[in-house]
Amino acid sequence: MASSTKAPDSVAPVSSSEGDGRDLKDAVIRFAGNSQDGIQTIGAFLAKMAGRSAREVMTYMTIPSTISGGPSIFQVHLGSGEVLSAGDEADFLVAFYQHSYENHISSLRDGGVCIYDSDQVEPDLSDGRVRYVGIPMTSATVEALGGSAKDRGKNLFTLGLVVTIFNLDRDKLAEIIERQFGRKGEDVLRNAMLAFDSGHAYQTGDLGKFSLEMGTNEDKDRIATDGNMALTYGLLAGGVRYGAGYPITPWSTIMETLRTELPKFGGLFVQSEDELAAVSTAIGFAYSGHLAITGSSGPGLSLKMEALSYATMAELPLIVVNVQRGGPSTGLPTSVEQSDLMQAIYGSHGDSPRIVIAPKDVEDCYYVALDACRLAREVSCPVIILTDQALASRIEAFKEPDLDKDFVPASLDQDARGEDFKPYPLDGMTRHAPPGTVMEAGKYPVVTGLEHDEWGHPTSSPALHVQMTARRREKIKAIADELPAPEIVGDAKGKTLIVGWGSTWGPIRETTLRLRDSGHDVSSVHLRHVHPLPSSVKGILESYEDVVVVEMNDEGLYGYGQMATLLRGHFGLSHIRSVTKTDGLAFKIREIIAGIDGADS
Amino acid sequence: MSSQPLTKKDLLADHPTWCPGCGDFAVLAAFFKILEKLQYPHEKICTIAGIGCSSRFPYFVNGHGVHFIHGRALPLATGISLSRPDLHVFAFGGDGDGFSIGGNHLDHAARKNPNLTYVIMDNFVYGLTKKQTSPTSPIGYKSKTDPTGAIDQPVNPMKKLVSNGASFVARTHAAKVKHMMDVFEQAILHPGFSVVEVLSECVIFYKGAFDPANDRKGGEFVEIDESYDPSDSQAAFALAAEDFPGKFGVFYKEERPTKNDLEQKWIDSANPEGVEPIDLLKGRFASMR
After folding, report:
1. How much of chain A is helix, strand and coil, in % rounded to 5?
2. Per residue in B238-270, pLDDT tens?
3. How high is the pLDDT of residue A151?
4. I need a surface site. Which of A162, A389, A438, B180 has the fewest CB within 10 A?
């Protein structure tokens, strides 16, 4: 298998005399500082600007789970071509403090550039592996802001520096800064622009300049946002008007945004006293005839489980978002993991089938939300959106959605129900009768968690339990045939197939493309609908000699990750193997390649 | 829709499966009487319950209803009330459902003041699961989980509800149908979260529990004095501190904005220009360019 883990199009090492006018196809810039330095802000500015320059962008950040303070990084991967991961190694490291330098210098590739704040950092200049450029970022910012003793604005000074070093469009960035800081008053905006422009004017000496190629992306209307926002606006476009939740990282930004936005849409999102109340109130909204949502992260989803089985039993539509983080228990609240797959599919008591969909990138968060809305309506059951911490917080640029095509208005089905109305017909789809609906037969329905007959009347008949269990199963199973075939990179059959789901899509795709470029018989398939799986999945898995499932969870007691376990169990295929990891970080390309090598032997 | 007046006959669904002599029959009968009096449109009546003997209630009312999971009737009913102001929402349940597994929801419904009525049929015992100690079982009560007598301090429902901010708190007795009907009517007409505790005897597992407040069983049913000021929360605490069986009637009543009103006020002011949802979304995406 491939020994090189370098992208063919990555930048060449920068020697001390070079730099001027060098064209870069892509660049990975890591800002390392403390969380209160505002590096997230400038990272987001760069990401927005990339979206406007037809470049691809992917960001990655770590936020300490403390309220303020603590080391934090923001990594921006800018590229003129397809950007599929946040980058294994940084080409440029901007170090604000000694600890930033010490903790992140190893993430800088050989020949990379370390730009450090010479007021704060004393690097080991004898290290010939990388280039060091010292810039007095703290004192220069203080000076730019008229000698006030504070260094607030250091982030914008640094942003100005980056604009100069990479020949970025100063005016476009200034416009983005104005939009952000303009709302905060004139003084704030003036200081921000002063810091930005003095960074922009700073002479970077012998570092020279790098030119980042313009992107080739033809879509004019591109937007840049993070996964939680893409998901939230997808839910609103799909017709969600009511919801309830309880705060937990990294789900909270979805509930905060829905709480703020839904009243404008004539709807409502309520903050509940706990997760049990949140899911119950959401089921109350669903029972009332609305498309409703609740959500959480792993521990909160566990608390919602009893009520989710109720929604399965009562056949009520309900969208449940789970932004996965590192578990078990409080685990790693600000790290990524894909260890809630089994919980999403099989958590809870009884035979309670539900639909589970996992977005692959930030853009897909929007489209998965739309799909979830459609399926919840059509199939009348809980639909879980299984996203993760990496998608939640990272920013990507993508084509602006076509709302004229996607938008689904909210509706409330209150047509009178005729004499022959049955909410749970054995030969047809569920049709709930929300309260307020006139029942022409004069008999009103009680929705129940007890096993019931076609009219919803409780029964303990063994035959009916068999029939109704099958009914709840079959209506979900039926969608497997309608789901689009999973996306395959490479050949329809061959030697090695990498299988992924969720946010590992980018790194797996990049790995596959690199390995294929260097002549390896490797393909990959992405599973977006993880439950039910599209009907074609078994045939796909059977078309390759080796199948390696790559996922961010533990190999478990029997040596297989959660998806690998499911696929082996579902299809009885013994050539399915597993590559897993549990360090709370997104997969690096070289880790996947090493994993496949290991799985090969 | 219903031009004919709504009668008990229209409202009665299946014959209740409660044990003969159960206090809950009287609660159901009183509820029907009030609905006959208030004449809400049939399809707008919505009856919610969790799990327990008394939580079978929705099955016996011919109206839209939900038999939900244990302890969560209130958050579910809150969702219905907030999103469907056209409905009349009633939650029913027992002491285990309301004070134990659903205790947190009761506290928070009390402070949030959603517009709905909650009737707690308190029998001081878990009946459906056949005689375990409940959160209102008195100290010394012998059950299958406390064979030598209950040792934990019972919940004082009136104190709990008043201290958590419920805007209507009342107590009645299933054997006193007229009193119960009067309290129910006041509770239903109260805007906001109105709670009624009904002492409703379990004749199988706690026979005679409420005889001390039943004048036909040698006890004394004492109504709250007419001079009592139900807007005085300190007086309500004092009343709630009286020894069992205590007094009956409206302990506390306060007019304050409901959660429904406050949320609706926000909704009404959130989009003053009346921008269509699709255009709101287009604007959001434009700002992400």
Report:
1. 40, 20, 40
2. 999 999 999 999 999 999 999 999 999 999 999
3. 63
4. A438
Domain ranges (residues) in chain A:
22-212, 225-402, 415-482, 487-600
Judge if A225-402 and A487-600 fold alike in CATH terms. Answer: yes
Q: How far is B121 from chain A (nearest CA, A)?
A: 20
Report DSSP letters for A286-300, one per residue: HHTT--EEEEE-HHH
Q: What domains sit in chain B, N to C, each tagged with a CATH number?
A: 8-256 (3.40.50.970), 258-289 (no CATH)
Residues 255-274 of B with CB under 8 A from A: 263, 266-267, 270-271
Touching A: B residues 68-87, CB under 8 Å: 68-69, 71-72, 74-80, 82-84, 86-87
Q: Do the Cβ atoms of A474 and A507 come closer than 8 Å?
A: no
User: Do the Cβ atoms of A442 and B72 come within 8 Å?
Assistant: no
Contact at CB, B75 and A223, closer than 8 angstroms: no
pLDDT of residue B3: 64
Reported as a pLDDT band with limits 50, 70 and 90, residue A569 is very high
Asked if B128 is an interface residue toward chain A (Cβ–Cβ < 8 A), one would say: no
* pLDDT reported for residue A599: 57
Label the pairing between strands A268-271 and A242-245: parallel
Question: Which parts of chain B sit beneath pLDDT 50?
Answer: 1-2
- Compute the nearest-CA separation of A537 from chain B (Å): 35
Q: Check if the beta carbon of residue A103 is closer than 8 Å to that of residue A71.
A: yes
What does the pLDDT read at residue A172?
A: 86
Which of the four CATH numbers 3.40.50.740, 2.60.40.2470, 3.30.420.10, 3.40.50.920 does domain A487-600 have?
Answer: 3.40.50.920
Q: What is the sign, positive or negative, of the torsion defined by CA atoms of A173, A179, A184, A186?
A: positive
Bridge-based pairing of strands A494-501 and A544-551 is: parallel
Mutate to test the interface with B, among A403, A439, A446 (most CBs of B within 10 A): A446
Mean pLDDT of A575-591: 94
pLDDT at A64: 59
CATH architecture of the domain covering A225-402: 3-Layer(aba) Sandwich (3.40)
Torsion of CA A339, A342, A347, A351, to 10 degrees: 180
Find, among B87, B95, B105, B114, the residue nearest to B24 by Cα: B95
Candidates B35, B62, B72, B276, partner chain A, best to mutate (most A CBs within 10 A) = B72
B-chain residue closest to A44, CA distance: B288
pLDDT at A489 over 90: yes
Interface residue A401 vs chain B (CB under 8 A)? yes
| Cα→Cα distances B66→A273, A418, B20, B89, B90, Å | 21, 21, 24, 11, 10
**How close B279 comes to chain A (CA, Å)?**
9
User: By the 8 A CB rule, do A322 and A296 touch?
Assistant: yes
pLDDT band at A66 (very low <50, low <70, confident <90, very high): low
B288 near A CB under 8 A:
yes
Interface contact flag, A449 B69, Cβ < 8 Å: yes
Q: How many CA atoms lie within 13 A of A165 on its CB side?
A: 23
Query: For residue range A244-276, what is the model confidence (pLDDT) as tens digits?
Result: 999 999 999 999 999 999 999 999 999 999 999
Interface confidence (ipTM) of the complex: 0.98
Q: What is the pLDDT of residue A1?
A: 43
